[in-house]
Amino acid sequence: MINITGIARPYFAHIDKIMLSRAMNPEAAQRDVLRNLTGESYEEFVNTHPTVSYEDIRGDVMRMVNGERDVLCPGRVNRYAQSSGTSGGKSKYIPVSKRALKRCHYRGSTDVVARYLSEYRDSHLFAGKALILGGSFANGLELKRPEVKVGDLSAHLIECINPLAGLLRVPDAQTALMQDWSEKLPRLVAKVSSENVVSLSGVPSWMMTVLKEVLKLTGASTIREVWPNLEVFFHGGISFEPYREEYRRLIGDDRMRYFETYNASEGFFAVQYKRDACPMLLLMDVDTFYEFIPVTGGNPVPAWKVIPGKVYEMVITNSAGLTRYRIGDTVKIEGINPVTITIAGRTVQFINAFGEEVMVFNTDAALARTCEETGAAVADYTAGPFFATCGTRGHHQWLIEWTVIPDDIKDFAARLDENLRKENSDYDAKRKGNIFLDPLEIITVEAGTFDRWLGTTGKLGGQRKIPRLSPDRRYLDRIIQFGTNSNK
């Protein structure tokens, strides 16, 4: 395949310049976006529209799915992204208008490439193919209109992609959109193993499964042997940190680059800002207006009034009919002008059963540090409270599926507990002297446990996400039924 990276660079450099220019002046950029979306000033907007959750608009969305026009946005919307829904039992169906596809989702993807090429001048990104994992149009609705498509956001993106861009991705659309992953995975692996793959895009946990199957099929010891020109993994959906060491083992060297993205069913919101920096740049040019609600309480504030170091719940307004919509994600503001963020977690994914206020970014960081200290590697995990019984104190209980099991799980648990105390002062305070909380407990579950559980929820596939934390035992008790608590 001819390397067209040099030909494409000027175009993406122009995109990057525009993106950064708008990011450096968030107030002007965001006021322009809001006027284009609603015709209102921000002051008028907040006085006429309340914030809403999905349950507030579920009925309106279903009217749209059934063909009603001019409900949440002008005209009729025929595409809906079925949310992976880690936070609730019922699936959410997010409207995806033609304008949102073009100006938000695809524009965000373009911004990612532009930012990456600007940071890595030696890239040969377009010298081969991009392996992009996608979902399908499987859904539990009885659709009344044949033109309506409901499924994973990635399925919509694959089906609507520019044909020229489609030539640069693998697998083919027919394979990518297959519904049954027991059939799809081996077919996908067989097709991509012989390709010249230069980049990967997907959720870290599921991409890891694909890479291991590639090694199994080819008999290679590292992915570098299969794809010698592989240079970058564009990842998102969940934190990459717990998986970093295992990816280093799978790839086989340290040349691989990792670039984080924030692409949700509701929109493409952020991309890694610098090559070696953790924070992501909040995108101001993707037809989305942002507001932020302090998790400690208070009124929403626009992007130009956020405070560095604080954690906020995200609220968005977009061209697909979502107005002041609380998407359920929390972010930590790392900087302003431009606004940079890190993902803090979900508004319902935390543990505060004992006043400890532990969030996903705390557990991800503690787990990553402990894996680095011990040489262990985690395939997936979830955690929640174990409530006090007669003669015992409450504590946190972790279910872990290992890729590389530690030599001593009790030592790993002690280190993890200590690292979590370093990450979260409230947890540390509750743990002091073992007065309020006992040390955390680890239950090892057998390989495939999380996949088997996800299969029962209808969420197994390329966009799968294990709920990391829960304030109760809604996930723990169910998942334990699918695994083996062989080690503690």
Based on helices, strands and strand pairing, what is the structural class?
alpha/beta
- Spatial strand sequence of the major β-sheet: 5-3-6-7-8-9-10-15-14-13-11-12
| Residue share in β-strands | 15-25%
Low-confidence stretches: 85-89
Using the alpha-carbon principal axes, give the shape.
Answer: globular
Alpha-carbon distance between the two ends: 51 Å
Strand runs, count:
20
Number of helices: 17
What is Rg?
A: 22 Å
What's the SSE blueprint?
Layout: H1 5-23, H2 26-38, H3 42-48, H4 54-65, E1 79-82, E2 93-95, H5 98-119, E3 129-132, E4 149-151, H6 153-160, H7 163-166, E5 169-170, H8 173-176, H9 181-192, E6 197-202, H10 204-218, H11 223-226, E7 232-235, H12 244-251, E8 257-264, E9 267-272, E10 280-282, E11 288-294, E12 301-302, E13 311-318, E14 325-335, E15 340-346, E16 350-351, E17 358-359, H13 360-374, E18 377-386, E19 395-404, H14 409-423, H15 425-431, E20 441-444, H16 449-457, H17 476-480
Parallel strand pairs: 1-4, 3-5, 3-6, 6-7, 7-8, 19-20
Antiparallel strand pairs: 1-2, 8-9, 9-10, 10-15, 11-12, 11-13, 13-14, 14-15, 16-17, 18-19
Helix pairs in contact: 1-5, 9-10, 13-14, 14-15
